[in-house]
Design brief:
The chain is an alpha/beta fold. The chain has two domains: 4-174 and 225-253, NAD(P)-binding Rossmann-like Domain (Rossmann fold, 3-Layer(aba) Sandwich); 192-223 and 256-293 and 307-324, UDP-galactose 4-epimerase, domain 1 (Alpha-Beta Complex). The protein has ten helices and 14 strands. The strands form four sheets. The protein has a seven-stranded parallel β-sheet, with helices on both faces. A three-stranded mixed β-sheet has the order 12-9-14. Helix 5 (142-161) links the parallel strand 5 and strand 6. The radius of gyration is 19 Å and the shape is globular. The model has no long low-confidence stretch (mean pLDDT 96). The structure holds uridine-5'-diphosphate (UDP).
Length: 326
């Protein structure tokens, strides 16, 4: 019989891509998503869908038991750094209380395999050239803190009821599935590659380069952009690893290569053929100068083999997906 995996936030950007990979790999998938930031259009047609809030512990545990779920991948969260600064309670409530609710549901339903989405924002301004899992954490915004607290809670829960977990710290996830079915639909997204796609398609008049005075070669922020399909594959590997009895672990997810904002903007101009306006502006509060992942551990322990490590593919799939929305 096929194993069933419950995916919270399965109607979201990374969640929907992961659901597609799980289904392709022979799993059955149960999605729990309240569609607050997710989209019906991203619900995979072969998944079982529950429109439910992760805060509703008893409902989620009922779903887990009814569906006989073997493992949980927990994506559902708020993820916008600037919003976390103006509305921190929303982040601690959704993200940190949210994980407590899901873990309680796992405890009630006796589920011991758990994959958790965390973020490179836990490292803050790490200062290191390349960030490994042992680089000290030091968040610089409530989003990063909300995820760091959640990580600790996930780890501590192992002693309470034997939960084994894989925690992924995502660097900058971007692009869309190559079949253009699953991508970033959020209209108010603040992420660079989404915004540059919109600017290319004239969905916005111009965009801003937020900060040109960082201690980086061209003065703009440097990030490690990872294609959403490669990241989704890592989740499938993680779930298989846990189902095979693997012990709890933590992995950075990125390619180990950084691009500046200017490089990303130029790449998007190249793949779109549109010379859109990118105006230099002030720094965005809470932004780090440089975040690049050391993903050696992910490659060696989970045998992760990235296939789409190419900024042009990332920009092109993001752009084509954006075009498909209009
Ligand atoms: N950025 C930018 N203009 C935008 C959005 C983002 O210059 O309209 C910059 C931002 O300052 C950072 C990088 O692009 O250096 C990536 O930001 P994004 O919001 O995509 O991801 P984050 O790293 O904040 O999670």
């Amino acid at each position: 019989m096929k194993q069933k995996i419950l995916v919270t936030g399965g109607a979201g950007y990374i969640g929907s891509n992961t659901v597609a990979k799980l289904i392709n790999q022979g799993f059955q998938v149960v999605i729990v998503d309240d569609l607050s930031t997710g989209f019906k259009e991203l619900v995979h047609p072969d998944a079982i869908f529950y429109n439910a809030e992760i805060a509703d512990t008893s409902l989620v545990s009922e779903i887990m038991k009814k569906e006989n779920v073997s493992g949980v991948i927990h994506f559902a969260a708020k993820i916008v750094v600037p919003e976390s600064i103006t509305e921190p309670l929303k982040y601690y409530s959704n993200n940190t209380n949210g994980v407590i609710s899901i873990l309680n549901a796992c405890k009630i339903s006796n589920i011991q395999n758990f994959v958790f989405s965390s973020t490179a924002a836990v490292y803050g301004n790490a200062g290191a050239d390349i960030i490994s899992e042992s680089t000290p954490t030091c968040p610089i915004n409530p989003y990063g803190f909300s995820k760091l607290f959640s990580e600790q809670i996930v780890r501590d829960t192992e002693l309470e009821f034997g939960l084994r977990s894989v925690v992924f710290r995502y660097f900058n996830v971007a692009g869309a599935s190559r079949d253009l079915k699953f991508g970033q639909r959020t209209k108010t997204a603040t992420h660079l590659i989404k915004i540059a796609s919109e600017a290319s398609l004239k969905k916005r008049d111009k965009m801003f380069i937020t900060g040109t005075d960082y201690q980086t070669p061209d003065g703009t922020g440097i990030r490690d952009y990872i294609h959403v399909e490669d990241l989704s594959n890592a989740h499938v590997l993680a779930m298989k690893y846990l189902l095979d009895g693997g012990s709890s672990d933590l992995f950075n997810c990125g390619y180990g290569q950084g691009f500046s904002v200017r490089e990303v903007v130029n790449c998007m101009k190249k793949v779109s053929g549109v010379n859109f306006e990118a105006t230099e502006g002030p720094r965005r509060p809470g932004d780090a100068a440089k975040l690049i992942a050391d993903s050696t551990h992910l490659k060696s322990k989970l045998n992760w083999k990235p296939e789409l490590n190419d900024l042009e593919i990332i920009c092109k799939t993001a752009l084509d997906f954006e075009r498909s929305l209009s």
